[in-house]
Amino acid sequence: MAPSLSADPADRIIVALDGMAPDQALRFAAQVQGLCWVKVGLELFVQAGPPVVAQLREQGLRVFLDLKFHDIPATMAGACRRAAALGAELITVHACAGSEALQAAQAAAVDGAQSSGQPAPTLLAVTVLTSWEEQRLQRELAIAQGIAERVPALAQLSATAGIGGCVCSPLEAAALRALHPEPFALVTPGIRPKGTAVGDQARVMGPAEALAAGASQLVIGRPITKADDPSAAFAQCCRELRSGS
User: What's the rounded Cα separation, in Å, for the pair 62 and 14?
Assistant: First the structure.
């Protein structure tokens, strides 16, 4: 089940707290006016641990816990149960873990949230990381499928297993949305607002374009976190969504 979202563009933007120390992340999140969602990734979680999720939630923020679980079914289930009990409302798992692991993870996440009185989370399956370029993916992993084939195949595997959404490149959002109508969530990194650098993402799109293509929520990091005025950069992203350009 996808998280409930308001019509406010701020509800569609998840700011990635990547590259920040725990205290810095908490200060930053408190200072950005209108911020609703933040992403806690591997680096921050490894340094700060579960308390950072609780601290961000105490600041009134909703948390996308992006740890990309990929393991045997029992281990994925245990990890998702604990992540849901922390109050994370979006949790990533790798689709290529397979249907048994995905089903176990989904059931455990629901149980973990219910047992701890937390909101029901949405699990998001990672299909193909946005840093992959097609020829390198095929060469290094010996995968015959192109990205255009592999992404929908993994998304369908995930949906059939009961997973509530996917993480995908914005360039794949339209095709996936045609196959998986709402409330199936499509959360897209690789978002670059007007006038910002592409960075290490190989497949990118602007905020309004991505939403129009069918994305549910957009993950934006450096264009906001590295801006001279992060609140202004966040507000500009919201304006782009409102204006549709």
Answer: 9
Q: Tell me if the pTM is above 0.85.
A: yes
Whether residue 92 contacts residue 124, with contact meaning beta carbons closer than 8 Å, is answered with yes
Return the amino acid letter for 66.
D
What tens digit of pLDDT does each residue of 143-152 get? 999 988 999 9
Determine which helix (DSSP H) or strand (DSSP E) holds 123, and give its type and residue range: strand 122-126
- What is the pairing mode between strands 62-69 and 37-41? parallel
Cα separation, 184 vs 180, whole angstroms: 6
Residue with structure tokens 């995968």? 143
C-alpha 100/C-alpha 172 separation (Å) is 25
DSSP state of 205: B
Report residue 241: phi and psi, to 5°: -70, -40
Name every residue whose Cβ is closer than 8 Å to that of residue 121 and which is 6 or more positions away in sequence: 80, 83, 84, 88, 89, 90, 91, 109, 110, 113
Q: What is the pLDDT of residues 175-208, one digit of tens each?
A: 999 999 999 999 998 888 865 555 554 456 889 9
Residue 114: CA atoms inside 13 Å, Cβ hemisphere, count? Answer: 6
Residue 25, CA distances (Å) to 17, 69, 114 in order: 6, 22, 28
Concerning whether 194 is annotated as a catalytic residue, the answer is no
Residues 6+ apart with CB under 8 A from 88: 40, 53, 63, 64, 65, 121
